[in-house]
Amino acid sequence: MQNSTAGKIARLSAEAATSLSLYGARTTWPAGFQIYQKGTPADGLSVVLRGHVVLRNRVKSGRGFVPAIVTPGETFGIEGITPSAVYVTDACASEDAETLFVTGAQFRAFVRENPGEALEVMGQMMSERVHLVEKLHAMASQNVEQRLVAALKRLAADRSFRSADGKLTLELKHHRLLCEMVGATRESIALALGRLVGCGVAERRGMVFVVAPAELKSHISGDGVDLESSLPAARETMTT
User: Fold this and answer.
1) % of the chain with per-residue pLDDT over 90
2) Least confident piece of the model among 52-66, 67-81, 93-107
3) CA-closest candidate to residue 196, choices 175, 173, 172, 219
4) Residue 88 resides in a domain
5) Taking Cα atoms as reference points, which of 163, 205, 9 lies closest to residue 193?
6) Are residues 121 and 223 in the same domain?
7) CATH number, domain at 81?
8) Residue 235 carries which DSSP code?
9) Are 123 and 173 found together in one domain?
10) Average pLDDT value for the chain
């Protein structure tokens, strides 16, 4: 398993995923399919094998907040391994996706019979929890542009968001997702994207924004770029 660094989630190794797959069932989901709903009984956990799954909390007026986008090698629905659990978010397949579902009983058998791989799976879940804690800190301490850059890095980690040349391609259909990931209005996101264009991090092609992951990485890591000064804070409006 890859080591986790700040802002980066580890992913299950092929060996651990293969071992776990012997205890679960694979399912292919069409784009937009709702895998489960918030408040419904939960049992077991799932791993994304292909595509990505969006976890969303509904707020009101059709708006929502996206605490996580789950990409290949990452888990979701892990509340299902706790007693009397219910799902705390909606889960929706974005684009075509394939997942592995392991029930609570199957997961306990996996832990008993494969303690080494089980430790890796648990470490994976802890890495994801750390990422969520870091995101909470970002929501409280960073401005819209800073949170947007972190969200773009997250999307760049999933090949389904990138074009053939490896660049992150954002169409109009992705703007709502960005709003829900960042916790800001479309107007704030549009302004922040415009500032990224002005900084040379992004390029606008009609209604599409194209972002080079290498440029994005320098802004996140701060290599040669002062994020606070290069991206002046926009007026922040949280989604409600």
Assistant:
1) 44
2) 52-66
3) 219
4) yes
5) 205
6) no
7) 2.60.120.10
8) P
9) no
10) 84
Q: What is the 3-state secondary structure (H, E, C) of 138-159?
A: HHHHCCHHHHHHHHHHHHHCCH
Residue whose structure tokens are 């080079």: 212
Q: Is residue 195 part of a domain?
A: yes
Q: Is the pLDDT of residue 77 over 50?
A: yes
Residues composing the chain: 240
pLDDT digits 0-9 by tens, 151-175: 888 888 777 788 888 888 888 888 8
Residue-number span of the structural domain to which 183 is assigned: 143-230
From 67, 7, 75, select the one nearest 47 (Cα to Cα).
75
The Cα-based distances of 11 to 1, 46, 77, 125, 139 in angstroms read 6, 13, 16, 9, 24
117 found inside a domain: yes
My answer on whether 96 and 164 are in the same domain is no
Strand partners, 107: none
Q: 137, 162, 177 — which closes off a domain?
A: 137
Q: Which of 22, 219, 4, 2 is nearest to 127 (CA)?
A: 4
Alpha-carbon separation of residue 19 from 9, 47, 102 (angstroms): 21, 12, 12
Provide the token pair at 76.
Answer: 């979701």
